């Protein structure tokens, strides 16, 4: 064989080896077969995030979310709006016809929770548990905590406590601890429960951290959780949320208290000018929303409401109710974000963070002056008169999973890992892992699942 042929053959072999190595994936069955047969693990609770459970009519059983594939693709889902009631009814509001069903596992758009359940039941060795059914002995159980993701997070935290108490009763052990896997919004709910149990503290400004819920938790694994909030939640009130080809309208999203509670923390630098300077504006102050003519003060939204009601008077009445509700929910959301970062006492509960850090993720909104009027820009490409030499992608976006920035997952007000954490943010965790995956696909990622099973099967 000539030298050139030998060299060519060697290069081909190296390329083949390199190609194979790039596609190596962990064999979860092999890795965890021995540990799977140990029955000393506590029960596990899987908590989904926003949009993560099916919603169905409590009378007819008709599925309002997501419904058939063509509805997910084409509907704007106006029937997901919650009745907003009056200030005297917050946070419970009026109970509507929709109730949480099972997990929204997967659709034509992708997998959300189906593969993680398969992994738990396969290599993980868990079996599905049914609340109210005696657990007995045998393989460890996992429970799906399905909730109405639109409602106030304090109500969901109270429901989480009821599930844990039921599990303790099923195991005939009032001191039993559980493990928790919580995705996105579910992580904030789990953290609130760990700190305060089922108590709603959002009507005042005092947040005495008791760690009442944490006493019932061994390990809490937070996946893609916006621990310092997400700018995407603000954007949902400006441009709506797009599950398919159409958007869920902002006025529908504004009836959902949980979305307010996903807002960036009060200490988060969320707004900048065209030169990158920070703007000190309070995202929880309704006056700011009025000034920018966004949210329930958006002229386009006002017009839509007039078109949807039988009379201008009815539209005006609903708009006034929505603006009152909006203002009240902003204040509850401010307190919710603070309640998760005030100082907490030491506790042995372990917290593990997992998330993505490879996708450009909304981190800041920008104010541009056009004809002496302040215009809010959600995306770099929306800036009408960009300044020369300014990288607006870097200014407005940060590494993350496309929805939650790495800094927010870590509970930091800056993406600079060398900078100290803000003195008024107390967020403690034991370890973290990062991977390249989008927010909605995190649970199906094999690297996440490998780290998850490793954490759940450890006895230390």
Quaternary organisation of the protein chains: single chain
Q: In whole angstroms, how far apart are the ends?
A: 58 Å
Per the principal axes of the C-alpha atoms, what is the gross shape?
globular
Bin the strand percentage.
15-25%
Rg result: 24 Å
Biggest sheet layout? 7 strands, parallel
Q: Strands of the largest sheet, in order across it?
A: 7-8-1-9-10-12-17
What topology does this entry show?
Blueprint: H1 3-22, H2 28-36, E1 44-47, E2 53-57, E3 63-65, H3 69-74, E4 98-103, E5 106-107, E6 110-111, H4 114-121, E7 127-128, E8 141-145, H5 153-170, E9 178-183, H6 185-196, E10 217-223, H7 231-239, H8 250-253, H9 257-260, E11 271-273, H10 286-292, H11 299-308, H12 312-339, E12 350-356, E13 359-362, E14 365-370, E15 373-377, H13 392-396, E16 397-400, H14 406-409, E17 431-435, H15 446-457
Notes on the structure:
- There is one protein chain.
- The chain has 460 residues and is an alpha/beta fold.
- It has one domain.
- The chain has helices spanning 3-22, 28-36, 69-74, 114-121, 153-170, 185-196, 231-239, 250-253, 257-260, 286-292, 299-308, 312-339, 392-396, 406-409, 446-457, and strands at residues 44-47, 53-57, 63-65, 98-103, 106-107, 110-111, 127-128, 141-145, 178-183, 217-223, 271-273, 350-356, 359-362, 365-370, 373-377, 397-400, 431-435.
- The chain has a seven-stranded parallel beta sheet with strand order 7-8-1-9-10-12-17, with helices on both faces. A three-stranded antiparallel beta sheet has the order 3-2-4, with no helix packed on it. Strands 11-14-15 form a three-stranded mixed beta sheet, with no helix packed on it.
- α2 (28-36) packs parallel to α15 (446-457), α5 packs across α6 and α11 (299-308) crosses α12.
